[in-house]
Amino acid sequence: MTEDISPKRTELSELGEFGLIDRLTAGLKPFNASTLKGVGDDCAVIDHGDHVSLITKDLLIEGVHFDLSYAPLKHLGYKAAAVNISDIVAMNGKAEQMLVGISVSNRFSVEALEELYAGIRLACERYKVDLVGGDTTSSVSGLFISITVIGRASKDEVVYRNTARQNDLICVSGDLGGAYMGLLLLEREKQVYKANPQMQPDLEGFDYILERQLKPEPRTDVLEKLRKAGIKPTAMIDISDGLASEILHIAKDSGLGCRIYENKIPVDIVTAEVAAEFQIDPVTAAMNGGEDYELLFTADVNDFEKLKELKGIHIIGHMTEKAEGEYLISEGGSLYPIEAQGFNHMRDKQA
Amino acid sequence: MTEDISPKRTELSELGEFGLIDRLTAGLKPFNASTLKGVGDDCAVIDHGDHVSLITKDLLIEGVHFDLSYAPLKHLGYKAAAVNISDIVAMNGKAEQMLVGISVSNRFSVEALEELYAGIRLACERYKVDLVGGDTTSSVSGLFISITVIGRASKDEVVYRNTARQNDLICVSGDLGGAYMGLLLLEREKQVYKANPQMQPDLEGFDYILERQLKPEPRTDVLEKLRKAGIKPTAMIDISDGLASEILHIAKDSGLGCRIYENKIPVDIVTAEVAAEFQIDPVTAAMNGGEDYELLFTADVNDFEKLKELKGIHIIGHMTEKAEGEYLISEGGSLYPIEAQGFNHMRDKQA
């Protein structure tokens, strides 16, 4: 086998996803003047004069990112579309086109694929995105979804993740940790069902966190709210891997440090209740759970009064100079270093 | 399992790839004025005022599109990039950016992925394409490659596949059938090796067709040649599924018929020799083999003299009115209806 001839073998799990991408894309220099931004943000950015294209691509892999025993195909299609649209939103852009690549084994019927597409098309209708192409092919086993979304923004609208400034406020939309608690709940009920197929899943009263896990929504409404309030974020990212991982991206890429106040992190009551049941600190769920697809952004301190008035936006901390490091401040005032322990699919699933 | 709840189950193999895409994308209407062309050409086309973006996405799946026992990872990376760039070329555009999605099991090492990326990066350097992003994740088994390429063209340069006109000349670049014979050769040597691992593969003298299969090149040089000669194709497509399938796309999408002359179809001498060895008509290899990534285009009859002078361009037939149908004319003057029997991965691999 070709992959075995190399004298040195480094396991993928040694590097993790970000380390691997860094290594594979090291030393790239653009050939085309139209390439404004390559690897290293939510989207690539392509110049078209007065405006830019924003392009993002995400893979969803059966057995790694989803489990069909509890993710209905229609929800899965919706989520696959939504998480890509969310990447465009995280650059302050408008998603306009989508390409869908699907590879399936013959375990799936045409009707199953139609269900999946129904979810994709529902998300496209909701967010006014045009399905313009793709590729459908068979696989030896399993379902692989690869989605590319193309967005648009005027040049002065685009918000990168590496442009936060010292003293900027750190803000987050919605609430965090819910998607992760929804996942734990679904996993638990799956185990119960496997042990005793007569048992009905006990999911009543948990609609909110189940929806957070199964049907996330890109926060186009937050962009609209900020625009109306006359606030332009100084840096922005969407929360796919957990608050810890995302604020570290903003801090490190901007060459800064940060402080986040534990008691400012928004957590929904259902999330907190389920977390208590699982004996998990809800702040841990928010910091490391991931998949909330809320927006994390920084804003000028002068926007403080305006931000305070915006419902569903929470000021959770501020950026510092780099030397001060990245810390979570507990209610008692203790400092805990922020570490990315989010969903690292490379590391988790291949251990 | 969710995919089993549907009362009706239609097998994917009943529809085939094109039928399936038609069904999944039926009734789509664009929301955005920027969407000039959706599903149904080599690329989607997005409006940017004076110019357009061309976007294409192709999946390459282990066990379906490639076999790592004879496709070296570096070649595979190169081919994955090249076939996507070829889709941009087929719209008469210039490929500028690429996003790469890779899903791998832990059977692969970091070094193996570096080999794959070395091939992708080599193609990007050769064709001056910027690698601007993507996604790398684990899979439960196998290697999945999803590539998106973004190209650019001025608005009056773009060539679609549905714009051929009656009496237009049908032309093809290079020669056909080689990639398919290369594949058959590799498959045969694999079987020989499996039967007796002491046997060395007998591939000497077959470099040309092996290269056709393992390392196809997008024909940017043909576009340049046509531009210099002042010829703009009236319709164009690249040959990924075989000449038969591609000319039917042009004919049906343009609402026309066509005549192709068997003795005009360009076949390399090595292709013909190996075809003889396998007792396959080389014309069959050209019509139905696929993966040659040559350009098939139509041009105005008034360009006949100019086209005749262009080395490596072959005039193989002409477009007719729709009622005359689509036919291959044998040397003896017999008419054979053209039927798409190309690589239909959905149908072949799931039977």
Any key phrases for this structure?
homodimer; 351 residues; alpha+beta; 60s Ribosomal Protein L30, Chain: A; Phosphoribosyl-aminoimidazole Synthetase, Chain A, domain 2; 2 domains; seven-stranded mixed sheet; six-stranded mixed sheet; 11 helices; kinase (chains A, B); PurM-like_N (chains A, B); EC 2.7.4.16 (chains A, B); ATP binding (chains A, B); PurM-like_N_sf (chains A, B)
Write the layout of secondary structure elements.
The structure is a homodimer of 351-residue chains.
Chain A: H1 12-24, E1 35-37, E2 44-47, E3 51-61, H2 73-89, E4 94-104, H3 110-126, E5 130-138, E6 143-154, E7 169-173, H4 178-195, H5 207-214, H6 220-228, E8 235-238, H7 243-254, E9 256-261, H8 269-277, H9 282-288, E10 295-299, H10 304-309, E11 313-321, E12 326-329, E13 335-337, H11 345-350
Parallel strand pairs in A: 4-5, 9-12
Antiparallel strand pairs in A: 1-2, 2-3, 3-6, 4-6, 7-10, 7-11, 8-10, 9-11, 12-13
Assess the beta-strand content of chain A as a share of residues: 15-25%
Query: Using CB atoms under 8 Å apart, which protein chain pair has the greatest interface?
Result: A-B, 92 and 92 residues
Number of domains of chain A: 2
- What is the fold named in CATH at topology level of the largest domain in chain A? Phosphoribosyl-aminoimidazole Synthetase, Chain A, domain 2
In CATH, the homologous superfamily of the largest domain in chain A goes by the name PurM-like C-terminal domain
Strand line-up of the largest beta sheet of chain A: 8-10-7-11-9-12-13
